[in-house]
Specification:
The protein is of the alpha+beta class. 16% of the residues lie in helices and 32% in strands. The strands form 2 sheets. A 6-stranded mixed β-barrel has the order 4-5-12-6-11-10. A two-stranded antiparallel ribbon has the order 2-3. The two termini are 41 Å apart.
């Protein structure tokens, strides 16, 4: 804060000038904080859908013994997954939000395996239709699909393999105008998926873990990229 020079006439003139200057700085700080709040949302809320992953009716797998009286409470296995929309290069796909992985995996529109084509509602990402994305080589540079980095991701049930692609990825909120986007975020564009994927109602898998041992490298964790690019204030989800 610069030093204010003033002539003190019975104290009133100097005090008034200092007060006006203080009010001006306070107004500027308030305006800056409001702009920051608009730019970095505190919360992005998504409307999710649920799918049961059980092929057969749930069965009893444990019994909880009551503390009082005689009897027990049968516990049933309820395996569900929750998924929602994701915008990739202007194309909307649905992804499951997975806390046990760090990569985004989506099927290519050209994927011909049963895991891709066997879904009731198959949607794949069309790399040729994107004007903001590109294939990525082993050394992280833009390239074509022939020289793109190949790798695979294995889950507890299922496996996908393909090539590296980067694009603008947006997590759209259910509140208009409060979504967030990361430019140049990397993901696996799956050219092959195991048969397990045919049972899923969603298109891809979005890993929520940070870059590290679970990710395919820096830039593959979408949450990390959103924070790094200033779109989210903290790396937190609930």
């Amino acid at each position: 804060v610069p030093t204010l020079m003033c002539i003190n006439v019975a104290g009133s003139t100097c005090v008034m000038k200092r007060f006006i200057l203080f009010v001006g700085y306070l107004a500027a700080l308030t305006a800056a904080l409001r702009r920051e709040r608009r730019h970095v949302p505190h919360t992005v809320t998504l409307a999710l859908r649920r799918q049961s992953l059980l092929r057969t009716p749930p069965g009893q797998f444990a019994a909880l013994q009551l503390l009082r009286g005689v009897g027990s409470v049968a516990l049933q296995e309820q395996r569900h997954t929750y998924f929602g929309p994701l915008q990739i290069g202007g194309q909307e796909l649905t992804v499951v939000f997975d806390t046990g992985s760090a990569n985004l995996v989506v099927p290519s529109a050209d994927c011909e395996s049963f895991g891709c084509k066997g879904r009731a509602a198959h949607h794949g990402f069309n790399a040729n239709a994107s004007t903001t994305g590109s294939f990525v080589s082993d050394d992280g540079k833009q390239t074509d699909n022939v020289n793109a980095r190949h790798f695979s991701v294995t889950y507890a049930s299922g496996k996908a393999s393909g090539i590296t692609f980067q694009d603008r990825i947006c997590v759209d909120s259910q509140h208009a105008g409060s979504g967030v986007c990361a430019a140049g975020a990397k993901f696996l564009l799956a050219e092959w998926e195991s048969d397990d994927f045919a049972d899923f109602a969603f298109d891809g898998i979005l890993g929520l873990a940070p870059d590290g041992r679970l990710s395919a490298g820096q830039g593959f964790s979408l949450l990390d990229e959103l924070v790094r690019q200033g779109q989210l204030s903290q790396r937190m989800f609930a």
